Amino acid sequence: AMRRVLLLGEGNFSFAAALCGAQATHVVATCYESEEEAAGRGGAARSIRRLRDSGAEVVFSVDCTKLKEHFLPGKREFDRIYFNFPHCGRKAGVVKNRQLLAGFFHSCAEVLAQEGEVHVALCNGQGGTPADQPRREWHNSWQIVAVAAGAGFVLSDVHPFKAETIEGYKCTGYRSQDKSFCVEGALNHIFTRGTAPLCFTPVSCQTQLGSQKVSFQVPQVLVDKINRGFLEVNSSHPVRTIKEKLSAGLSQAFPLQNISSCLPLLHHGHPGAVCHSNIFWITLSPGQAPSSEKMSQGLADAALCSCLGQDTGENGQEGCPAPKQFYLRPSLLPHAQAIIEKGAFSPGTLQVLSGPVFRKCRVIPHSMPAFHEMLVVLAVSRGTENSCIQMLLDNIKTTMNSLHQGTSGGKLSISLQEAGSFGTELSDFAAFEGQLGEIRHFLCVGTEPEPPGSCVGVIRAAPGESENRELVVVSASLNLDLLAMLLCGISDWRMLWTWDRHFLRQFPEGELRLFKSFSLYPPSYVHDVSFWLPDGEDFDELAFHTLARRVSGEMVVSIQLRDNFQQAGTGRRSLCYRVTFQSCDRALGCREAAEMQLHLREAIQQHLGVTLR
Q1: Are the C-beta atoms of 369 and 361 separated by less than 8 Å?
Q2: What percent of the chain has pLDDT over 90?
Q3: Which residues cross the membrane (predicted)?
Q4: CA 203 to chain CA mean position, Å
Q5: pLDDT band of 205, cuts 50, 70, 90
Q6: Angle in degrees, CA 186, 187, 190, rounded to 5
Q7: In this prediction, what percent of the chain has a pLDDT beyond 70?
Q8: DSSP label at 194?
Q9: Where are the domains of the chain?
Q10: pLDDT, position 339
Q11: How far is residue 182 from each of residues 14, 107, 122, 162, 518, measured CA to CA in Å?
């Protein structure tokens, strides 16, 4: 098909003339001046003649902020829009030029094809991105990434603008005169449309509990994480590729059984017995509650989770159970525990369970409210467990190293750290102590030469149940999302959940490759919020972080306590937090960020009972 290219703000039309010979390209070259003014520029008349002879359109008096007015509806879908060295003219400063760009990008959104690109060439330093060498102060630049984000565009690529490679090209227009200007170090910025903001309509989800299908309201913060199907058969998502490759490697050393399908999403226990603050409690949709106590017990078994809350009441007496409640599974361990308790496994066979799990967590890098867990469980004879752990580890190491060779060619350091050698940051894994035994080791992966790197999993060992005293159950729980980030060079876990098609296109048919971001230098917005705490109450920081995730649609990348102040005399406490908003995959403009800040302020006052200062 013929590619339609729009050129704006042409000075002497030399850039357009250089493009007009390209095959299968229809060029529409425009400038802001009238035909008389433009033709007076050196070499312009010749370029215009050449353009018209080659079948290109030349249009004068085109305002780049009102493109819709210049092109009829059928003629609007441009595949590329070029604007080289935009400028308001004369001695216009950075603020005026930012406004020009803002109007231009909003106008582009109305005439650009869905998959089209916008190319903006700027002089060295103007853009204000780290690609500029040297880089200007942000306030003294054109802030092009933030300006474009306001109109829904992300910076997909940036490379040098090589004027000398464009045949016959001569820049002109310095301070609105027919004079050239310095294009050394100039950069071409390529923008594409970001995905549309997610709409936060409530979502309900169905899951199988025993013989019953129940539906429940998905917690708002997880709306885009439920039922994404990344591990399904037809998925080419990196987490599935890694799971399949690990399984294939393990199956060469052990007989393997996959039991991933239809594991219930919901677990079920007494709020008293399941005392993790990082659990997402769930309300079943109306009319979904189990009909009788007997049904409820049936469901508990079906949810494979009766192991979490014993049927004794809070006071420890049999027969007066506190009401059990449902929550989203924070781990696959209870499923494995239930399989073992039922004796539904054969010693020496590796059971592989996998699926998404959900936990409330603070906003810190690598801490994810949802991730894909792969759980490998093996029952072995007592006394052989250590050699089995070593076999498992060697197998995982071999697979990981061959995958890493394929993506970046470097070597991974994969090590076992003893359970005692880690601090609190591993509470994610430690929260489920007591299921499948004590944690023996943490599995750490880093790129050499910087061990020990990130903890991507834990290895446990537990004695078998009463009739299987001679067996030891060895299990390895792996975070597939963290492995995908390490292997593919993805720095932000949120990218794994993006709806942007540019992501999966980089992994055709599940091939693992080094990831190249399609949203470079995304703008970030900092907001300080301070508030008085209710008298005598502790502040639930985890609830604050979860609220920030929810209100911003996972756009908060950092929350830091700046100040903790106690008023003399009254003893009232005030906290001040610095909250940073930034998207990894879509356009986040300053207006949208300001709205998020307002929503967050309202929400903390409403839900956390604090008083804003």
Answers
A1: yes
A2: 55
A3: none
A4: 20
A5: confident
A6: 155
A7: 85
A8: P
A9: 3-193, 204-286+323-493, 525-612
A10: 80
A11: 16, 28, 11, 12, 29
Residue with the bigger pLDDT between 101 and 273: it is 101
Whether residue 351 contacts residue 336, with contact meaning beta carbons closer than 8 Å, is answered with: yes
Within 10 A of 133 (CB to CB), how many other CB atoms are there?
9
Average pLDDT, the chain: 85
The residue ranges of DSSP E strands in 452-520, in sequence order, are 454-463, 471-479
Q: How far is CA 3 from the centre of its chain?
A: 32
Residue with tokens 């991105």, as numbered in its chain: 129
Question: 376-386 in b/e burial notation, b at 16+ Cβ within 10 A?
Answer: bbbbbeeeebe
- What is the band of 422 on the pLDDT scale with cuts at 50, 70, 90? low
Distance, CA of 125 to chain centre: 29
Q: Which CATH number fits domain 3-193: 2.160.10.10, 3.30.390.10, 3.40.50.150, 3.10.580.10?
A: 3.40.50.150
- Mind giving me the DSSP string for 85-99? S---STT--HHHHHH
pTM beyond 0.90: no
Domain 525-612 annotated CATH 3.40.50.150 = no
Which of helix, strand or coil describes residue 457?
Answer: strand
Q: H helices within 289-370, ranges in order? A: 293-302, 333-342
**Residue 291 pLDDT greater than 70, yes or no:** no
d(CA 613, CA 610): 9
pLDDT of residue 315: 35
Domain 204-286+323-493 classified CATH 3.30.930.10?
yes
- Is 86 within 8 Å of 120 (Cβ atoms)? yes
CB 195 within 8 A of CB 499: yes
Mark 259-280 as b/e (b = at least 16 C-beta within 10 Å): bbeebbbbbbbbeeebeeebbb
* Position 405, amino acid: Q
